[in-house]
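[worker-b] picked up task from shared queue
[worker-b] task type: protein-ligand structure
[worker-b] ligand name resolved to S-adenosylmethionine; SMILES cross-checked against name lookup, match
[worker-b] sequence length check passed
[worker-b] input payload:
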Amino acid sequence: MNALAPDTKFLFFPQLNQVEDDSWLNSKSTFGPPQYENFFSGETLQGKFLKELATAQLLPIKEVLECFEYFAQIRKHVRAEVMADLCCGHGLLGVIFAMFEKSVDKVYLVDMVEPPSRQHLIELAISVAPWIEAKIVNVSERISVESEWLEEGMAIVSAHACGSLTDLCLDIACETKGNVAILPCCYPKKKCSAPLALQNNLGFELAFDVERTYKLERAGYHIRWQSIPAAISPMNRVVIGKKKS
Ligand SMILES: C[S@@+](CC[C@H](N)C(=O)[O-])C[C@H]1O[C@@H](n2cnc3c(N)ncnc32)[C@H](O)[C@@H]1O
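[worker-b] inference finished, payload out:
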């Protein structure tokens, strides 16, 4: 499958732009000591965190690279005192915001299911960045515009929230009037409200994101489209909405 969005270079891990065989970058195999030793070792904060992740063999390689590269693309556009990582699964994206962004005070990790990896991941993160313990709030529920913990100005981020859950993430951002970033995955064709002419000529995935862009613009957002490296995932378009002041 071709990538949805133009390819881009690795930002957080520029050393990966030089790898000749990039076939392992989207691997579902566990991120472990070999990857850490070969590409990520170091005494920096990310080096220490990646060492913990590698030793614990907790997450697939793809998930680790995806979260860091997505974070690198969106951090300066969406960071806010209070943030929510919606449909967060393991929660790595939200944990990275809590770890690397000093201005972020609180991150809600929200998913209707809390996988066993989440708590382990948080413990590993706290071992190298103890300041995140006070920032992380786990919420196990379906995402909704009516959740009582939503607050004005809260930024919303989400990675690969399936189908129209991505649209619900945008609706929630419009409710909080906060910045937002999405990395859409599957596109439910039947839910695409873009004009047929656009769907037929642009392809419905692109038309879907065009429609999302207009919707956010109408809600008072300035929109940017970016991408993560296609070697990590072909579902690589990043849509960022920055609330106009
Ligand atoms: C494809 S996974 C993405 C997980 C994570 N963001 C990532 O990038 O690995 C989609 C996640 O959405 C969650 N989910 C599905 N429906 C949901 C809902 N209605 N409310 C909250 N979470 C939901 C699932 O439990 C799953 O963890």
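[worker-b] attaching auto-annotations
[worker-b] The chain is about 40% helix and 15% strand.
[worker-b] releasing lock
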